[in-house]
Amino acid sequence: MKKSSFVLKALVAASLAVPMLASAESQLTVGAGTAAARLNFQVVIPRILFLAVGTGNATLGTVGTIDEVVFDYTTNPTDVGGGALAPAASVTGNVVPVRVLGNNGLIEITAAGSGTGLSNGTDTIPWTQISATSSEATFPVPAVGATASPTLNAGRLTDRTATWTYSFANSDIVAPGTYTGQVTYTASMP
To answer: How many angstroms separate the CA atoms of 38 and 48, rounded?
Structure first.
């Protein structure tokens, strides 16, 4: 009986102590004076990095849509190889909305193109024929095979938006076909 009495008393003591462990600070003052109680706060912010090129630039989240910029010469075949920019159709023409956001310092964005250029399965148009400009000097477009860094907003925070306008040089006459390729933009942050 002594052992079960001891266990019972220990359980009662533990159950009384648990609410006190979870209680906030308090102070009792009797008579004149003040009473104070402190409360600690903690905010936990994760390291974040976000890059959107095209669809999904307005939503901080993962969007699986891969947009396409199309330079179509079928309505103006006499412009092929003449250096004339064909109208692009897709996304919003050849103008693509972009956003980068990060909270841990300088961000580098690299552009890697598939293969040596756009291909129709037999022939290739080199990536140097595709170029882009940015609507914001603080958010430059990296050329394929290169790196660019958006300007920090303040401290270690980067939150930049822009539109990138793509051009096709069209400086060479090439074999017929639909030439396709993909550029992967990758953002990295320390």
So the answer is: 32
| Amino acid letter, residue 1 | M
CA atoms of 61 and 64, how far apart (whole Å): 10
The residue among 146, 130, 150 whose CA lies nearest residue 138 is: 150
Q: How far apart are CA 66 and CA 91, in angstroms?
A: 10
Prediction pTM value: 0.78
**Torsion over CA of 127, 120, 51 and 168, rounded to 10 degrees?**
50
Confidence of residue 15 (pLDDT cuts 50, 70, 90): low
User: CB under 8 Å to 95, separation ≥6 — which residues?
Assistant: 163, 164, 165, 166
Q: 125: which residues sit within 8 A by CB, 6+ positions away?
A: 117, 118, 119, 172, 174, 179
Please, which residues bridge with residue 99 across strands?
52, 161
